[in-house]
Amino acid sequence: MSLLHEHTTTTAADVLADAKVALLPTGSVEQHGPALPLGTDFMAAEAVVRSVDDRGGVVRLPTIPVGVSEHHRQFDGTLWTDPTTFEDYVADVVASVASHGVKRVVVVNGHGGNSGALQRVARRLRREEVAFAVPWNWWSGIDDVLEDEFGTGITHADEIETSMMLAVANDLVREAALAEAEAGAGGAWGHDVHGANVGFDTIDFSDSGVVGRPTEGSREAGDRLLSASGEQLGALVEWLAEQNVADLWPQEHR
Predict the structure, then answer these.
(1) Contacts 24+ apart (CB under 8 A), 227-230
(2) Cβ–Cβ < 8 Å for 26, 67
(3) pLDDT at position 254
(4) DSSP assignment of the chain, as one string?
(5) Each residue's pLDDT tens digit, 137-168
């Protein structure tokens, strides 16, 4: 896999001519409690992208690190952008690479808060026949591994994200702070009152910014997550590369 930003304009021409699929990592720079780094989400996305590095016909675009994270704003270090700004920025980046002939893109996302904007981007670019951009979260398609290792789905700075970071950036995990993170953690994402979720900001339902049980994370589980996620991404890339772009555009009215 070629990293576009490491090429010159001359060598990029050959890379783009050979590329069938582009990968665009996205994530966030936001609080993940006292134990995990602010860049957890985009670093996890980058790690999964790196796991398919040996595939030809794929070009990796520079990471978009800051995402839709205003709901974490009360915690120090969090950066965020407006959902519409994020959506337009991603759309512009994808349209740029599409203008060079690479119209199949997987947006490899590490932050759940980006999902709504990425779905809107994908629909807009497809409707306008600019590019077929698939939003894909790194935890997608690995429910069997999540169930087997943790018996639960992903929340925030929990045992799943802790495991992933122990596998991909072990030196940035403050393991001595995991107990503190868990002591102040929320039990679920949000705060429900009579069926209405009134936990609009993370601080409304978590003192530490964490939701879950980060002390139950492990490097071994993280290695398994990374491997399983990489396999799913690789399979998605292969499928997308085989598609005729014209067949990916919206169908005409019947």
Answers:
(1) 227/51, 228/142, 228/145, 229/48, 229/51, 229/138, 229/139, 229/141, 229/142, 230/48, 230/51, 230/52
(2) yes
(3) 55
(4) -EEGGGS-HHHHHHHHHH-SEEEEEE-----BTTTB-TTHHHHHHHHHHHTTTT-SSEEEPPPB---S-GGGTTSTT-----HHHHHHHHHHHHHHHHHTT--EEEEEE--GGGHHHHHHHHHHHHHTTS-EEEEEETTTT-HHHHHHHTSS---BSSHHHHHHHHHH-GGG--GGGHHHHHHT-BSSSS-EETTEE---SGGGT-SSS-BS-GGG--HHHHHHHHHHHHHHHHHHHHHHHHS-HHHHSPPPP-
(5) 999 999 999 999 999 999 999 999 999 999 99
Token representation of residue 111: 């932050």
Distance, C-alpha 249 to centroid of its chain: 24
Q: Which residues does 146 contact at the CB level (< 8 Å), separation at least 6? A: 139, 152, 153, 154, 160, 225
Residue count of the chain, please give it: 254
Distance between CA 252 and CA 66 in Å, rounded? 36
DSSP 197-221: E---SGGGT-SSS-BS-GGG--HHH
Q: What is the pLDDT of residues 94-148, one digit of tens each?
A: 999 999 999 999 999 999 999 999 999 999 999 999 999 999 999 999 999 999 9
Which neighbouring-strand residues pair with 58? 21
Written as six digits, the tokens of 12 are 């990029």
Nearest to 241 by CA among 142, 138, 126, 102: 102
